[in-house]
Amino acid sequence: MGVIEVKELVKSYNGVRAVDGVTFSVTEGETFGFLGPNGAGKTTTINILCTLLGFDSGTAFVNGFDCVKEPLKVRSSIGLVFQEVTLDNELTAEENLKFHCYMYNMSRQLANERIDEILGVVGLADKRGTIVKKFSGGMKRRLEIARGLLHRPKVLFLDEPTLGLDPQTRTNVWDFISELKASLGTTIFMTTHYMDEAEACDRIAIIDGGKIIACESPGGLKRSLRGDTIYIKSTDDERAAVELKEKLNLSARKIGSGLSIIVESGEKFIPKIFESMETPILSVSMKRPSLEDVFIHLTGKEIREYQAVAPVRPHR
Amino acid sequence: MLSYKAIYVIVLREFKRFFRQRGRMVTTIARPLIWLVIVGSGFVNLIDVDTGANYIQFILPGIIGMTILFTSVFSTISVVWDREFGFLREMLVAPVSRVTIVFGKLISGTALSVFQGTILLAVAPVIGLNFGLSDFFLMFIFMTIVALAITSLGLFVASFLTSLEGFNVIMNFIVLPMFFLSGALYPVENLPAALQLLSYINPLCYGVDSFKHILLPGGGSLSAELPLYVDVIFILTFATVMTFLAALVFEKRK
Ligand SMILES: Nc1ncnc2c1ncn2[C@@H]1O[C@H](COP(=O)(O)OP(=O)(O)OP(=O)(O)O)[C@@H](O)[C@H]1O
Ligand SMILES: [Mg+2]
User: Fold this and answer.
1) Rounded to the nearest 5 degrees, what angle is found at the Cα of A304, between the Cα atoms of A298 and A308?
2) Coil, strand or helix: which one is A221?
3) Which of A9, A11, A22, A43 most suits a substitution to test ligand 1, by most atoms within 8 Å of the C-beta?
4) Are residues A142 and A212 located together in one domain of the fold?
5) Are residues A127 and A252 in the same domain?
6) Which of A74, A103, A148, A300 is found 20 to 30 A from A274 (Cα to Cα)?
């Protein structure tokens, strides 16, 4: 049995299904990623697994404990980095971290050691005694992550942990998480908006409209596309799509301002476009399959709209 | 079931927040003094001398009750605050029972109230009340159980509320009637029968009555109205039931 076992999970808000019959299983030590557009049900699933939210039907087990019947045992074995900032603005960075340590029953000495270490990882060592209210959005985000990594949970839930971080901090955080994984065998369940982070997962579930539409290793997902993606921009996409269908028997998918088609061999195909098509072509580009393409192919959503999110709540 | 370290750190956090918000402390100490000085000295000469205590002395127990009422009830705003700003989720996802969180909030509200009530006790000798060390200890114990009762009521109500605005509206509807029906400013027996009935389900009324037992000399019309044991039984029962209900609501609500 996996560390996380979810079967036919359903959760609706006012009759609308946010999570719609999701089934998956995560094995020990695995890094499992949830990839999906805004409102796909990623956070809802995490909240259910972390016992913060009830659900309508199905089953959810974490570390062998039932999320409904044994919430305390589930919570004892997990850690969670929230998508939004949930720090206490009136406390200092150190006080926020200490609060966490004591909630997780650590000794004062252990707490101090861990706090020293983690503040270094996220580059906030010199901000230890500063009231969080005075932090920038990115600094709050860093502290939020630091806090989630303080105790060493068996299963770590990361809800878009590195969104809005500078590249340097992102690297540091991931290095630290890899170390934890290597030394403790931590299982990681994460959602992310960054394709490179998704690539690093052992397995990825692509979720849209509350349903899992694919669940495989990044390599497997890419292979499933079987070919290169060609992006075409033309003066008239509608007409170009019709032409592609009629003359080359290819169905193009409309994405943003252009068309995408998947062909077996891109290099050989590009000349054919110019030979056969009458619609003026503005640009053509080719890509070996990437996770982005898989994502676009499966959800029909362009990556740009998917990345436009503001995770940090407004200050009040 | 209870995690003491967690309770400790929840209480510590509330205290830090309280002392960092200077305005909050100034208001809660200045308000009762203003009442004592302005209301007290306004009425002091209107009332017969032969009433057991003069009017300023008479309202001190009530003003201590008021301070506990305000501090306890408004300390529970932190539940709503934490929910609104997400911090509640940090507590809810920790491996501690919901009851632990309720106890943390309960103890911090109670302790803050007792702290402020104790400061006010310094006024007793100044206005001519005979106030010894044993009275101080008695007051300390009674203030604690009264604060516990009021904080648990506040927590129970706050568990249902999701916005700070709603909190202010609802709490003001609860707090002001509770104060005016507590016997703080006039004896409850002077009220019309219907209002007296309300007074007798008001925990603060029993609290203020117990303070009058301890602080006032007794005799005359301005003194305690109920036997002390009735006060004790009512307050303790109320505190127990409310704590239980607050824990229950907290457990059920996510
Ligand atoms: N408290 C709530 N009340 C009503 N509807 C909700 C609530 N929380 C989430 N939803 C709805 O449930 C759906 C899934 O939301 P969820 O937060 O799980 O999405 P997500 O995949 O995490 O998206 P994002 O990438 O934006 O974080 C959305 O349609 C959202 O509107
Ligand atoms: Mg989300």
Assistant:
1) 115
2) helix
3) A43
4) yes
5) no
6) A300
Structural domain boundaries, residue A8: 4-216
B residues 66-105 near A, CB within 8 Å? 85-87, 89-97
Q: Do A52 and B89 make contact, defined as CB atoms within 8 angstroms?
A: yes
For residue B21, which of A83, A188, A90 has the smallest C-alpha distance? A90
Of B6, B20, B86, the CB nearest to A103: B6
Beta bridge partners of A197: none
pLDDT at B96 (0 to 100):
93
- ipTM higher than threshold 0.85: yes
DSSP three-state, residue B177: helix
Q: What is the pTM of this model?
A: 0.84
Query: Rounded to a whole number, what is the distance in Å from the CA of B237 to chain A's nearest CA?
Result: 30
Query: What is the rounded distance in angstroms from the CA atom of residue A54 to the CA atom of residue A44?
Result: 10
CATH number for A280:
3.30.70.980
Taking chain A, what is the end-to-end CA distance rounded to the nearest angstrom? 45
Q: Which residues contact B49 (CB under 8 A, 6 or more apart)?
A: none
Sign, Cα dihedral of A183, A184, A187, A188: negative
Quote the crossing angle between the two packed helices B228-252 and B98-121, to the nearest 10°.
Answer: 140
Give per-residue pLDDT as tens, A107-138: 999 999 999 999 998 889 999 999 999 999 88
A77 conformational bin, left if phi > 0, alpha if psi -120 to 50, beta if neither? alpha
In sequence order, which ranges of chain B are alpha helices (DSSP H)? 4-20, 22-34, 41-43, 55-75, 77-84, 87-92, 98-121, 123-126, 133-158, 164-180, 193-199, 203-215, 228-252
| A166 part of a folded domain | yes
- Taking phi over 0 as left and psi of -120 to 50 as alpha, with beta for the rest, A7 belongs to beta
- The model's confidence at residue B13, banded by pLDDT at 50, 70 and 90, is very high
- Distances, alpha carbon B210 to alpha carbons A176, B58, B138, B153, in Å: 59, 13, 10, 19
